[in-house]
Write a structure and sequence with these properties.
The protein contains 7 helices and 9 strands; from the N terminus they run αβαβββαβααβαβαββ. By secondary structure, it is an alpha+beta fold. A hairpin with a 2-residue loop joins strand 2 and strand 3. 35% of the residues are buried.
Length: 223
């Protein structure tokens, strides 16, 4: 019985050690409040559809966006996610919520626009607890990830809304992922409705990329 206890104890210690070692400092991440985290797609059908239908000339590949807030040396991530709604998590919890290999790219507002950050962060906290907007229609209740970022910066017009498309840019046909998604919701695909997306935001000339983090089966590397 004692041997089993010590095996379990060693396992718990090892898990804690693995997670504890990946702090922003040890990953050489130069994070600041207001930095935006852009996450690459996962293997899910919807994740791929989001990326495929929102491609830009810059050919980025993102399906999620979040914003950083640093308080008393603790790095937090504020974002809107399915099942969670608008929430705040430590960056460690945010990193380890991914179960497969992804890349998180760090973008920062150009100095000219950085004055918008304090107001955006205040609004980000006021919106905590809002449900997730599964329809991706701006006028519907709740917020989806890029809608959340758009809203918190809306006062300073950092980002803009554009007509949404759910089609494959190569074929002009609706992507199967979106067809299945909206069929389950029981509503028409909102083609042409105003909206925003991570790829479109990453293409903004008001942002510049400052670094990347690769998450691969709980092994993090900076790049």
């Amino acid at each position: 019985m004692k041997s089993l206890f010590f095996i379990v104890l060693l396992f718990l210690i090892s898990v804690f050690t693995v997670k504890a070692q990946y702090s922003p400092d040890e990953l050489n991440l130069d994070l600041q409040t207001g930095d935006l985290l852009f996450c690459s797609p996962t293997s899910g059908e919807l994740s791929k559809a989001i990326d495929q239908s929102t491609q830009t000339g810059q050919e980025t590949h993102f399906d999620h966006i979040a914003i950083v807030d640093i308080k008393n040396d603790t790095v937090y991530v504020l974002h809107a996610a399915p099942k969670k709604g608008v929430c705040r998590e430590t960056i460690g919890k945010f990193f380890f919520s991914y179960k497969e290999k992804i890349t998180i790219s760090i973008y920062r507002l150009n100095e000219k626009f950085s004055k918008a950050i304090p107001t955006a962060i205040q609004k980000a906290y006021k919106l905590r607890g809002q449900p997730y907007n599964y329809s991706y229609i701006i006028k519907d209740p709740g917020l989806y990830c890029s809608e959340y970022i758009y809203e918190i910066f809306a006062t300073d017009s950092i980002f803009t809304l554009k007509p949404m498309t759910f089609k494959d840019p190569k074929t002009g046909q609706f992507l199967a992922g979106w067809v299945n998604y909206y069929k389950k919701l029981g509503i028409p695909i909102p083609e042409g409705e105003p909206g925003c997306n991570p790829n479109g935001m990453a293409a903004s000339d008001k942002l510049e990329m400052t670094g990347e983090v690769i998450i691969d089966n709980n092994a993090l590397k900076s790049k």
